[in-house]
Amino acid sequence: MATLLNLQNQTLRIGLNNDPPYTIMDRFGGIELTIIKMMSVYFNFTIKLVDCHGEYGAKLSNGTWTGLLRN
Questions:
Q1: Contact 10, 46 (CB under 8 A)
Q2: Which of 16, 18, 29, 66 is the most buried (most CB within 10 A)?
Q3: What span, in angstroms and rounded, lies between the C-alpha atoms of 1 and 63?
Q4: Which of 32, 34, 35, 36 is nearest to 23 (CA)?
C-alpha cells in the first residue's frame, strides 16, 4: 500500500485571480478552491491565499516580476 504525502501542516501560499465560477476569492469558493481545500486535508497542509488582482505576471526591466509570479 502506498504512503500518503504528509506535508506536516506546512503553509502553502497559493496565488489566485478572481475568475468565477472557477475561483471566487471573496467567499473561498469555486471549483479550484474546492479542490485545493480537499487536497489540504488529504496531504495535511494549510492554505494562505494571495489575491494577485488579475495579473498573471510579467518580468519587468529591473528583473522583478508582477502578478502571480511576484507573490
A1: yes
A2: 16
A3: 46
A4: 32
**HEC states along 11-32?**
EEEEEECCECCCEEHHHCECHH
Residue 4 is placed in which grid cell?
500518503
Domains and CATH numbers, the chain: 10-70 (3.40.190.10)
Q: Which three cell numbers stand for residue 41?
A: 486535508
Closest CA to 45 of 2, 3, 13: 13
